Amino acid sequence: MKIRILLPIAIGVAACLGTLLIFDWRSIGTTLAAFDYARFILLGIPISMAVLVTRTIRWTAVAGMAFTPRMLWRTHLQTALSIATAALTPLQLGEALKLKLARDSGAGGWHKLTAAFAMERIADLAAILTLAAIGLRGGQAIWLAPAAAVMAIGFCIVPFALRVTAGLFKHGVLGRLFSPFADFHLSAARLLVVGFGTAGKWFSVVALWQLTIACSGVALTFAQCASLVAGVTISVAASMVPVGLGVAELSARQGMIWMGVAPSAAEAGAIALRLISPLIIGLGLLHGLLLIKDRTTDDV
Hints:
Blueprint: H1 2-22, H2 25-33, H3 37-62, H4 69-88, H5 93-104, H6 110-136, H7 144-154, H8 158-168, H9 172-178, H10 188-215, H11 222-239, H12 247-258, H13 263-272, H14 276-299
Helix pairs in contact: 2-13, 3-4, 3-10, 3-14, 4-5, 4-14, 5-6, 6-7, 6-10, 6-11, 7-10, 8-9, 10-11, 11-12, 12-13
């Protein structure tokens, strides 16, 4: 347990020190002073909303909730608040909040929601690997649409495979691990919604990254940003450092340099990506206020 706690701390401290020592902060300051904040806000808000909406649709589908206007609106508010919470706190507190809010809304018990949460993570992994594969193919944008379709359709076999696995391992550690999937069923239509919702979410994230980097003066293609998102996400997940502090910056810098961006411009772009967090947090907290108002109305 101590290793699991100390290792991410050690990696985070080393990454932060590396960022402080390697980055040219004078050049970064000059670049950020000339950052196109107006363009970032005007275009960043609708793209961020696209991220929130696609995540809402996916969560509604995978959790088996009704696609009614009322349920979609409540789920959207809850999803946005949970994303803001996740950005402000370490570990998976934001996701834990999403599960609790969904349970309070009558979406199902912990067993069902845990399985739905796991399905989301599996879908995210499939999307990240798809983005990485696009990068390995030379960053050709033509691969984005077919890759999304293959990922969405291929995802439909995952619940079946998990149910079969749960049937094979009914006891012991593996039995407890796969037990939530024993009775987890989703229609083919909902599975396709989850698949295409995941593709929409990640493509929106890529678009947001491309916008942010462009506002700092670095021009990357959509496909290049797709591979950059995949690389940074994998690095952050592997390091287990909360919010990827230091790790994300070093990974983004190295990724852009590998794509031919000058080191000083890559460093400014990597730091600029942190501006996405306050944008998402601000939108999430605003949705949180609407959620409080919405729940107060229900109580009246």
